[in-house]
Write a structure and sequence with these properties.
By secondary structure, this protein is α/β, with parallel strands linked by helices. Helix content is 33%, strand content 27%.
């Protein structure tokens, strides 16, 4: 992993209230635009249930490592089946029978509470692998992504591990999972600024509002990019104006963009005129984050 620190350059989270709005297009385009102009940049794909940024960056992966979490292990010879651990667990990951304790590891949140509350010290921690992270380089771009094992319910430990690789000397772009649940919250928290990518449709507006509420709670400044801006109506723009949310960019619905995307070709590579727009976007984001170069 790269050297990292709690303090560094700008951390940009790119999210949305729903899937399919174009987060990865924006993330990879911004990363490539910065790298082409020798601005140190790293892209971390935090959509660990379905990472796809590397389809466009084609990074060379040099490190793979598992991500493990703690789950309890019961010593049945010591266990008195007093039920204190099950009563404590908010996630119902333990069930106590008169002669047996059942553990549901996928539901465990690794809080260590059951271990601490056990009166006879019958519970010990053991590790369980839930996925992996990969680290590499795509030209001048530092790259990392993660992949949650099939059947696992908790993406946040992998996202947290990915974020531990944030570089103190690079602009960091976090390609967030879709939606507004825990994986998005884990990605967005402690970011300096958040781009919310949306579509000018009723669904896009509804889910944008949810994402805005999350960023308000987290205290992260945000701006909006409207993708396929000419296919719907102006309600998203009116909402941003009413709420004082900066409209950072509008991208039209064009066949050439879709064709390039289907071939794994990034927006700034397929249409070089967007290079300037993404450099201007970076300046806007630095201003919003209070980090002028």
């Amino acid at each position: 992993m790269w050297n990292c620190d709690d303090e560094g350059d700008v951390i940009i989270c790119i999210g949305s209230g729903k899937g399919g709005t174009g987060k990865t297009t924006i993330s990879t385009s911004l990363a490539l635009a910065l790298s082409k102009h020798d601005i140190p940049v790293q892209l971390i794909d935090c959509d660990v249930e379905e990472p796809n940024a590397n389809l466009f960056l084609k990074a060379s992966i040099h490190t793979k490592q598992p991500v493990k979490v703690m789950v309890p292990k019961i010593d049945e010879e010591l266990c008195t089946h007093c039920n204190k651990c099950a009563e404590f667990c908010r996630f119902n990951s333990l069930v106590i029978y008169p002669d047996k304790t059942l553990i549901f590891p996928e539901m465990c949140h690794s809080c260590y509470g059951c271990i601490r509350i056990c009166p006879v010290d019958a519970i010990k921690p053991e590790s369980r692998e839930i996925g992996r992270i990969e680290v590499g380089d795509a030209g001048k771009i530092q790259f990392a992504d993660g992949l949650l094992n099939i059947g696992e319910a908790r993406a946040t430990p992998i996202i947290s591990e990915l974020k531990s690789s944030i570089s103190p000397t690079h602009t960091t772009i976090l390609d967030a999972p879709p939606g507004t649940s825990c994986p998005f919250v884990e990605t967005a928290r402690k970011s300096d600024v958040c781009i919310l990518v949306t579509e000018p449709t009723p669904f896009g507006l509804n889910d944008l509002k949810l994402a805005v509420e999350v960023t308000e709670i987290l205290g992260v400044p945000r701006g909006v990019i409207i993708n396929c801006c000419d296919v719907g109506d102006d309600r998203v723009e009116r909402y941003c104006e009413d709420e004082g949310i900066e409209l950072l960019m509008k991208i039209p619905h064009e066949r050439s963009i879709a064709e390039a995307y289907s071939k794994g070709i990034n927006l700034v590579e397929a249409m070089p005129q967007y290079m300037k727009l993404f450099l201007e976007l970076n300046d806007k984001l630095r201003r919003m984050a209070g980090r002028q170069r």
